[in-house]
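User: Thanks for the earlier help. One more: FemAB family PEP-CTERM system-associated protein. Can you show the sequence and predicted structure together?

Assistant: Of course, both are below.
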Amino acid sequence: MNAPLLRSRLAVRMANLKDADEVSRLGAWIMAHEQGLPFHRPNWLLAIEEATGQRAHCLIAERAGDIAAILPFHLVHSPLFGRALVSSAFAVGGGIVSNSATATQRLAAEICGLAERWSCPTVELRGGSMPGRGWIEKRDSHANFLKPLQADSEAELLAIPRKQRAEVRKGLENGLAVVTGRTDRDLDWHYRVYAESVRNLGTPVYPKGLMAAVLQRFGEDADILTVLHEGQPVASVFSLYHKGIVMPYWGGGVWDARRLRANDVMYYALMDHARNRRCTHFDFGRSKTDSGAYHFKKNWGFEPEPMAYAIHTADGQEPRDINPNSPKYRAQIALWQKLPLPVANYLGPWIAKGLG
């Protein structure tokens, strides 16, 4: 009489990310779930751990042997920024992927228990199913930008609002070359441009090994598009591909990229490239509300979609602050922008790998 009830009880356990069959099962479930993102995939979790040392974990809620919900996360530790459980580290998305409110609540309670046992004052869920009571929810701090790709290159150009379309046309007249690939050369070009770009913004650069690990783990679901001027890289973007969506993730340009409109050409070329890969949508990613990047994406005709984040803190603790726009980092950012590039590239990865 009670056996069917026992079989349907929800069980929660930690996934074994060293088991190839478990990893394959998780990956397939995430790809089939409408809420699944690249940052939920075991490939992302393991690439982050491999490149930064931040330990990867994944909680699974199961009912009668079937997955009901998952919560992938990293235990992020930094001498500068403290400890936190983050879903997912170095990602703009993550959180709980769930088929039921009950499963969501169970995983939320479990990760809070882990945070207490592992001395992590903060738990961060970057999207996903919101756990509700006992969590701080933020729904207006960031927005995402997603829209369908057009049928062809000309239609794509015409779909860009007039002022931004003019910038793209100017860039296309500057004799820029576009190269796409996954080789060591592509990664070298990308990292050279990206490192200079983030130094100019005043933030430490991620380790090159992080991008190399994601490129290797994702295989054909990741590549690099670089814009060259007179044979030299001036803008470059590292993109992820997930269920028919292209996501330009790490991108930037050197100082001369603005004059050349290289970034404008880069994103337009990526739209063409993604269409050729049979993608149907372009995900311009997350930006802080009312920031420069937020308005840049609106200028391309993308409409902002508010993102929901959830934070849980131990009693009496303040959430960790890693927001580069925070007033407390203003002086450090100004100093970082003045560092010689070799110095910034030497120090940056050690700092950035603790940001999560």
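User: Great, one quick takeaway?

Assistant: The chain has 13 helices and 15 strands.
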